[in-house]
Amino acid sequence: MIKGMRPFPALALLALCAWASPGTAAVTAVSAVHGAGNIPVNRSQVVTVRWQVQVSGNPTGGPQTVTVRSPRGRFLSGVSLVQLGTVDAPLARRVEAPATVTIGERLRIPAGVLQKAVREGGAVLRYQREFDDGTSSAVAVTGELMLNLSGASGGGFAIDRISLRFDDDAPQRLVAQDAALQARAEVSFTGTGLLRAVWEIADPASTMGRPVFRTLRSVRQQLSASDRVRLTSPRLPTAQAGLYQIRLRLLEPALDAAPAIYYFVRGRAVGQPAPARLSLLGPRDGGLLAADTRFRWQAVEGASAYRLEIHERPRPSGPGDDGAPVPGSATQGGAPPVEGPPLTGMLVPAGQTASGLSAAARSHLASGGDYLWRVQAIGADGRIVGVSPLRGLRLP
Amino acid sequence: MGVVARRLPIRRQAPWWGLLVLCGLLAAPAGADWRPGLQAAEAGLRSPLGALRVRLPPGLPGEVRQRLLLELDGLDVTALLAVEGDTLVFTPAQPLAWGEHELRLVEETTEGELLERGAWRFEVRRSRQLREAQARLDAELLLSARLAQASPEGAPDPFQAQGSARLAGMAADGDWRAGGSADLYLVGDTRQAPTGRSLDLGEYQVDVSRGVGRLRLGHQDVGADNLVLREFDRRGVSAALEAPSGLARVTGFAQRSESVIGIEDPSGLGDADNRTGGALLTLYPFAGAPERLFLSATLLSGRGSESGYADVGDTVTGETAAWSAVADARLLDRRLRLRGEYAATRADFDLADPASGRETDQAYALLADFTPAGAPLVAGEPLNWGLGLEQRRVGTFFRSLGNAGLPTDKFLRRAFARLDWGGLSLNASFGAERDNVGDLAFLPVTGTERGLLAATWSPAWEGGGLFAQPGFSASLVRTRQKTRRLPSEYGGQVADTLASELQLGAAFYPGSWDWSVGYILSWFDDRTGQFSDTRNGLTTLELNLPLGEWLHLSPVLQWNRLDERDTGTRSDGLLLELGAGFTLLPERLDGSLNVSLNRERASDDTVDTRELVLDASLNWTLRPARSRRPGLVLFLSGNFQDLADPVSDWSWRDYQLFAGVRSTLPLAYD
Hints:
The complex is a heterodimer. In chain A, the strands form 7 sheets. In chain A, strands 19, 21, 23, 24, 26, 27 and 28 form a 7-stranded mixed β-sheet that branches. Chain A has 4 helices and 28 strands. Chain A has helices spanning 7-20, 111-120, 204-207, 359-362; strands at residues 27-34, 39-40, 45-55, 64-70, 73-77, 83-87, 91-97, 99-109, 124-131, 141-150, 158-166, 172-176, 183-190, 193-202, 214-223, 228-232, 242-252, 260-266, 276-277, 280-282, 287-288, 295-297, 303-312, 344-349, 354-355, 370-379, 384-387, 391-394. Chain A is 8% helix and 47% strand. By secondary structure, chain B is mainly beta. Chain B has helices at 10-27, 62-66; strands at 37-38, 52-55, 68-72, 75-76, 81-84, 87-90, 99-108, 114-124, 132-149, 159-173, 176-187, 199-210, 213-220, 234-242, 248-256, 275-283, 293-304, 311-312, 318-331, 336-348, 359-370, 377-378, 381-394, 410-421, 424-434, 445-457, 471-485, 496-508, 514-526, 534-547, 551-564, 569-585, 589-602, 608-623, 631-645, 650-669. In chain B, the strands form 3 sheets. Chain B has a 26-stranded antiparallel beta barrel. In chain B, strands 1-2-6-5 form a 4-stranded antiparallel β-sheet, with no helix packed on it. In chain B, a hairpin with a 2-residue loop joins strand 24 and strand 25 (424-434). Chain B is globular and about 95 Å long. Mean pLDDT of chain B is 89; it is low at 1-15 and 18-29. At the A-B interface, helix 2, strand 10, strand 11, strand 14 and helix 3 of A face strand 3, strand 4, strand 7, strand 9 and strand 10 of B. Strand 24 (344-349) of chain A pairs parallel with strand 4 of chain B.
């Protein structure tokens, strides 16, 4: 009781003080760490920041719950301290003071900020946040994270971009039952490290309700020196009709989102079975076409004719694409796909499972040429009932 | 009364003498310069399966007939010829495509030369009004009811509808062609729907061409492959003009910068801050040998981000303008390839930030690839080889929305070689690259050296057996990275690492089934001590085994082991999957079962997860779908999932059981 004050005003004053100052818990220190390594200046980066905020307790004793908050962050040049950008994403955490609380933040450093940092000069980018205890009288404490910049190859291992498509570059597919289908992910990355990921699929047995993803294949690939790689999924299931979802979930380095793409398998109609696999017996992949070369294959049930096709091998067209085969891929089925009608070939009746090339067919081929060949089995109704993989063929 | 023969006057005898001469000529054996004729189509229209009849001159010697070869569109179809007197008849085994075809009859002379006796171009038409006309609808509707679920909270409505439809059609005649296709989707649970809408449009395309012009609307890739535009498959519009010879083409395009599906923004051009447009010019200057030189120029500008549907990347909207010029020559009978490209971009990385400004940068790519003529024989097999050089520089701030994800800030020099002998192919390359191509003094320079050796081998194999039709592959990649220049007072990490990866693979095709095995060993050594050294081995075994007509098995085994040398931690992962498709009653009762077990464990007990997933389905076909008649299938399907993570003290178990009906409708007019 304050001497000289009447009881009621004194109580009111005490209450007012209590309301105005619920506690004197306060943010006393802020530090930050991240595990991302150097930040390459050529592309935007996502880093995980851990803010450690110390909150002092109420000097009058007893626990006190406060909300530690930071309304926004900002980027500053490490040299000139010029503000380069802001992050309008608040952080907040309720904590029982006194305590040291760790608040995580997935921070995207925009390419524009990095570009301005380079323009300012200096190899350091500063990221600051102010934290307070959320009260009106709170005094904010600034925490700062120092990010070391580097060139593209010197950056920490991180994924810049991932693009998921099917093998024909479409983001969605409608396919027939038992059709061949694969997905591919194009991954742009910085730094060096072991990529760990899993291809996962949810099939019609669960997509009618709560989709359940199961692991299709694990991916482990050593990536180096900031580049772009293409990961191809295993052959996707198409035996059951319905809705499928396929995704590539990155385990390390992690991504916030695992992009998923969808495909529908439509039921089979009578008379429309998927072509069977036609096995080739010779010549081997990459073989040389001699005068006595015979193309041989295994018979396919239901065939009324076989078509031996010879295609020109697609020429690499892009920058730096020398057409070298993908390391580690088995040869069979590894030939590039062909489009359009064949250059030449032979059409033979069903009872024949071998054929040479006639003089007329050979006349379409150039000396020293590089070709691809395959055999298709044709049914009595004209449909394709069997298809072989492509094999390479060279002319002397 | 007898018959009085009267002698005809001479002038009345002339026609008769002429007729005798004509008969004599017709009856005489064909001369060396004989020509066959293609019989006209019945009713003047050739149908896709209509027989082609080539009439030979009568009296053609048998030994000449034996040497005749018939080609249809370059394919030798002689083996399927039927002979009706003096007429060779070929009935197509497959319906011929609508449009023009070429039929050729050649004679292989006794000297081994080919004499073209006849060549005809003909058209397969649907009708007199239209050369081609097709329409197709493939629709599927699936109605399901959830019968049981262990954890129904948060699950979608028990009654669901899903479906898909593809509409496609085209018509053509003369020099015009119009066609299109569209995919529609129905996903009753909007949380699962790709766009959040139950019924929506997927990809679509409308294509109209006439003469040298073409207009395309919808999802498309204008076909460029260079530093500023590559695999840019987006929704939009393009218009192209192509010279009748095909040797020159100019294309203008405007497309949505970000990938999209759905009815939102159907043209792809509705958002000015999400649009990229430009022009592409391609030219083959040498008409007689177009492969000798290819020129192209690309201009584009646009706004947007690097993210979109199924793309995860930078979401900040920027603006870029870019151009590229390419020259690609194949000389010395296509044995020497020389390619050069120069490109430049001007980019504003953040449109929302007025202070971001624009950054210009450049890139170039040079490639030389040589394959010598002639192949020496080694052990009876030709030895082909080739080698090449590449140099590429991409500026630090080089950026084009048409080629998002292009590795930038890179200067690369690489040499490569290849060798083919028998069934063996070898590839080797060695490259050196560095970053900080702008030579910023305050940033370090990191150099990378990468060596690659890869081999594939397909030995000749006769007969069957477990290892029939083998194919082997192996590759070794080693990458050394080191900080070459370190500015004083630089506080960041320096690089001194060696990363290697060995891949081995083998695949075998004993007959109707196949199997393969693969092994990948990766190791990473960091000499700075900042990162843990690691060793990772991944083994994969796959089998594809059809057992008669009623069962198909596809088991997979994957085992992974990761050792972190610095901490001594070992992580093991095991994936066991068995897929089975079965047919109990042909065309009536079939189903599938899939069991997947995934286990991950770490030796320091920080990771211990187990995942078991079972999917099963049983389908009873009440009525099979046929062309223009919907099918009806009753199905029962279920899913069981058991997840456990003892480290986090978390587990989850759920099952779902569904029943429903599915209808497939294929409708086609062709």
